Amino acid sequence: MSVLNPDQELLQRFGNEGPMPIDTNPLAAALGAELLQLDRAAGRIEMRFTPTSDFGQADGSLHAGTIASMLDFAMGFSALAAVQHPQSIATATFNLACHAPARPGPHVALAWAEGRNPTQFFTSATLRDENSALVATATATQVILRG
Amino acid sequence: MSLDGSAAGAMGIALGTRVVRVDAERREVEIEFMPGSQFLQGAGVVQGGAVAAMLDVAMVCAALAVIPDGKSVVTSTLNVSYLRAARHGRFRAIGTVERSGRTLVFARARLEDAHGEPVASGSSSLPVVERKGGG
User: Fold this and answer.
1) Chain B contact set for A95 (CB, 8 A)
2) B interface toward A at CB cutoff 8 Å?
3) Residue of B75, B123, B125, B131 to mutate, testing the A interface (most A Cβ within 10 Å of its Cβ)
4) What is the spatial distance between Cα B62 and Cα B107, in angstroms, rounded to a whole number?
5) pLDDT under 70 in chain A at which residues?
6) Which of A10, A128, A146, B65 is spaced 20 to 30 Å from B125 by Cα?
């Protein structure tokens, strides 16, 4: 029998009671991830991240992989919140567009489900900095794992 | 080219980045990674963004190897296909330049695990920009 993913357990108990730090996996914790809002029915999630210079490049801007991590977490969590254990999800494809350089500091990712079928989710997301400026957009497909 | 983890910044160091080979004629680079455990997600595998980061490093390095001195590149778009779960361990990426113009570089990369099994593939477009200090 498959073990419940701790991220999935956290999403199940979140009740929109305010920001919830995500300490269930090392990368989310390192990125200072917090769950802000979750609408399971609509597949919509809002998360805040506060990456430090540890996730930067030599010129001080955030690495594209860091931007990808924040958006992948948001889109993955929006899909993961919509399935019940022992089902889970895995990202199959991910497309990122970097609109502007990102600096270490607070960022808010908003992800939503564009649609789903019995085997896949189709999700989109935006990432904005602390001034609400658009940093990046992304789309992804997540396959539903049967457990 | 002397790009190693330190030149790629803190992220490059955390990913355990090491440039193994630069083949200018084939416009191809080979890079090894040993990402730290901080890149794991809840299911215990390397998170998708960290996989994207390794592909991105390979494609950026391939692009840097072919553009003129005094120039640099930034990642504009990045497309990733996740072929299998990335179990924690050592990875090898091959980055290749498909086309290099005056304003844009198109690159591809594939990522393998320590057993040579394909983990992910990616493509990106990278605008050519003036190099800033340290970048």
Assistant:
1) 77-80
2) 7-12, 14-15, 37-43, 47-50, 52-54, 56-57, 74-82, 85, 132-135
3) B75
4) 7
5) 1-2
6) A128
Q: Are A65 and B54 in contact (CB under 8 A)?
A: yes
Amino acid B4: pLDDT: 46
Cβ within 8 Å, pair A64-B75: yes
Complex-level ipTM: 0.89
Residue carrying structure tokens 């592909």: B55
Q: Which residue of B has its CA nearest to A6?
A: B42
Shortest CA distance from B84: residue in chain A:
A92
| Beta-bridge partner residues of B111 | B93, B120
- State how beta strands B91-100 and A134-145 pair: unpaired
Query: What does chain A come to in residues?
Result: 147
Q: What separation in angstroms does the CA of A68 have from each of A101, B44, B77?
A: 13, 18, 11
Query: What secondary structure letter does DSSP report for B39?
Result: G
Helix, strand, or coil here: A28? helix
Nearest to A59 among B14, B82, B134 (CB): B134
Cα-trace Rg, chain B:
14
Token digits of residue A54:
């540890």
Query: In the numeric block, which tokens belong to residue B35?
Result: 């990402």
In this predicted structure, what is the pLDDT of residue B2? 37
Please work out, in degrees rounded to the nearest 5, the angle formed at the alpha carbon of residue A122 by the alpha carbons of A94 and B120.
25
> HSE-up of A22 (CA within 13 Å, CB side)?
32
* pLDDT in single tens digits along all 135 residues of chain B: 334 444 567 888 899 999 999 998 999 999 999 999 999 988 889 999 999 999 999 999 999 999 999 999 999 999 999 999 999 999 999 999 999 999 999 999 999 999 999 999 999 999 999 987 543
